[in-house]
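Checklist before submission:
- one chain only
- standard amino acids only
- sequence pasted in full

Submission:
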Amino acid sequence: MIKLKNNALIHSNLDEHKAILYDTYSAKKYYIPFNIAVEAQNNNLSSTDVLRINNLLVDDAIPVVSEVQEKRIQHLRLIVTNKCNFKCSYCFAEGGSYGMYLDSMDEITAEKVIDFFFDKFSYINQVSFFGGEPLLEINIISCVCEYIHSLYENKKILILPKFSMVTNGYLLDEKVVEIINKYHISLVVSHDGPPDIHNSLRKARSNKGTFSHIDKCMLEFRRKNRVSIESTYTSIHEQNSISRDQLSEYLSNRYSTDRVEINDVLIEDEKLSYLRPISKITMSEKMHNFFLGEEKLYNDFLIRLLTTYLSGKYSKEFCSSGVREYCVDMHGDIYPCHRFEGKPEYKLGNVYNNEPIRRPKIKTKDDLKCSVCKYKMFCQVCVYSLSLDEEYCNDLQSCIDYFLHNMLDLLITNKEEYNRI
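Returned file contents:
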């Protein structure tokens, strides 16, 4: 018996009496007769109709990797220091140190990193600064930005990268803000919500709470600048009767931003398992909030789904780590991303050794189970997180399915809202 290809996704709307066939391997859409959609959903299609539908669908997703793309990277992250002025309860990086001795990047290494990567790649979309706490080394950050600007002004690079930084926000003083504005550095601040909760999770080295000082800095900064916020959801939030949605709303309203990312705490050390929230929210539930909420709050995951939905571009990697994204630490060691920092088996090279960057030994979609997955084109997630959570895959598939059906339903019922999204 002939079966529908795995990449056939059919959505129908009973009120409008319309249906769309979506090819999950090419992102192409086809309006089909409503009765055919009903028959498909009832597993009652004739062999002739199955053949007609299958003829519209591609056989497999084709990775889009050109020679030009291979010479480009999207993200170069510099760990300018592994020192930190905080001691957050759940820190995955062992207080920012990544289990290594405390050190900072010097100017020679910083310039060497930039020269190394621009020698191997013709284009770098974004250079970001990370730690530890990167603002402890604001002079190095300024040095890197200035050096890249000089390369651009002297026509040694053709396109100026964007700059960004992830910070705890405690050191956002006048000098720092001046440098941020001078080089147009996009800011992502880690913030865990209302004072009592934030102070219990994100303490200074002195063991004092950090909310009041950060709050003052952020409100002042936000008067003239945009800011994004990352927040870690824990059992402490639950104990204080703060839901994920309430946390997002609090941060969005207080700092007037629509870029708030809420992530459940990722625990590797079981001694910290008490911080795991008891309640779980699936990705589908998050997507449900997006489609039904009055105000659309976009996050990186949703933006990636939308981009793939529109472009149909497929990558066999789960994320860009070690392919279009690299992380370099204080000593010039290269890793796929900051999550792998300090793990020797994932080291890809060093900028002081003028050798090709090694390919990372991380999971790809060539894996047997993933290679035949209906949703593989949309599966763009942190490969490090994927390796830690067995339920993640099922949750992700449900989420992608929910996203696609809702987008197609909007296309049928509300073209104006569809285009706005």
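Reviewer check: DSSP finds 16 helices and twelve strands in the chain.
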